[in-house]
Amino acid sequence: MKFKTIEWKGDRVRILDQRRLPGLVRHIDCNTASSVAKAIREMAIRGAPAIGVAAAMGIALAGQKIRTDRPALFLKEVDKVCRQMGQTRPTAVNLFWAIRRMRSVLGRSAQGIKELRAELIKEALAIYREDIEVNRSIGEKGQNLIKDGAGILTHCNAGALATAGYGTALGVMYAARDQGKRFHVFVDETRPLLQGCRLTAWELVQEKIPATVITDNMAGVLMASGKIDLVIVGADRIARNGDTANKIGTYGLAVLSKWHGIPLYVAAPISTIDFGLDSGTEIPIEERGGDEVTHIGGKRIAPTGIKVFNPAFDVTPHSLIAGIITEKGIIRPPFNKSIIRDVGSKAT
Ligand code: MRU
Questions:
Q1: How remote is the CA of residue 259 from the centroid of ligand 1, in Å?
Q2: Which site from 29, 45, 46, 187 is most exposed, i.e. has the minimal number of CB atoms within 10 Å?
Q3: Which domains does the chain show, CATH number per domain?
């Protein structure tokens, strides 16, 4: 990749500001855990794995900045930051998974503040590095699904920008490209925040992968015309029965795919599976401000006074999903059996 989504800089966390892409490639240097939390909340960094990594680095940063020689106070302050990170965005479970991993460092007994500081950094960097490795494995396991000459549809951005690097849904495509396959990617623009049009398109142009942007309401026409062979999307949280929360619009796409007999695959790390949830009805769905719908690029496009409904995610029922591509392989239906059988023991 020609860019870094997020970097640990020792005394700060550097984040590529995704709100400005593709027009402006600008980084934000976060010097405090609060500024990392703000970057997650305001979506300067977004995508389930990426916000997990950002939260972990934010917690490690807090560890460096808390000035006390009293271990109990140190632990209390780090705990406060963990809670602050957990309040940034509710749907992507990778965030809570990463916070849990950072908290487990604090639980290791008999450590002084100096050791804890070092351990927090070590854990955050491990989460970062593992994410890139996991994405590469997802790519490797999923690339066989892409046949030479395929037309692929994707939604939102599940690429290097949404992860520590490489990507999940786009990672599968990068791996297929590296195998010498030729294919064409159709990119849903992904209203309201245009992660497809702005971010996925930006990545694919840089990677020189042939791609076409469409507005979200054009997918059906493309499918009916035979141009789409498969759909690959990312995920923010997957319940034990395979129901999958992903960017708003994924559900509609999945219904269309089923109707046209086109397989829809979800590409996600095992850390995106919430083993504590029986079904997708239990997944908390983030609702964001109405401005995201009534405005585009800061310009109002709807009349003042109109009501807005703006859920950031929807849940695709497991019956519409052909398979879940993880770092350990492709999980196939029936998911209520296969998820636990295939990857249940790999969960941390
Ligand atoms: O609101 P966002 O941009 O954070 O939503 C991102 C998505 O829905 C992605 O598809 C998902 O997080 C998977 S990223 C590998």
A1: 25
A2: 29
A3: 6-136 (1.20.120.420), 138-343 (3.40.50.10470)
